[in-house]
Amino acid sequence: MSLFIPGAHIISKLVDLFCVLLFLNLLTWIWLWIFIWNNFLSSLFHFFKHLSLPFAHMFNTLFLFNDTQK
């Protein structure tokens, strides 16, 4: 004997829809996290690259410039 619950198929469809939306929300948050983290690492890399340029110039001036004077 099966138990008949009126509206159970509608509730089942709503639960399925909720699970699909939850999964899409999770994918969106993962994509957003990767996008933000990638931009952060990229900007950090460019910051340190520009920061290291004066040090590279100073290194070239101090050490390599003396070799040309010989």
UniProtKB/TrEMBL annotation:
Organism whose genome encodes this protein = Citrus clementina (Clementine)
Instruction: Alphabetically list the UniProt keywords.
Output: Membrane, Transmembrane, Transmembrane helix
Q: Has the keyword Transmembrane been applied to this entry? A: yes
* Protein name, as recorded: Uncharacterized protein
- List where the protein spans the membrane: 14-35
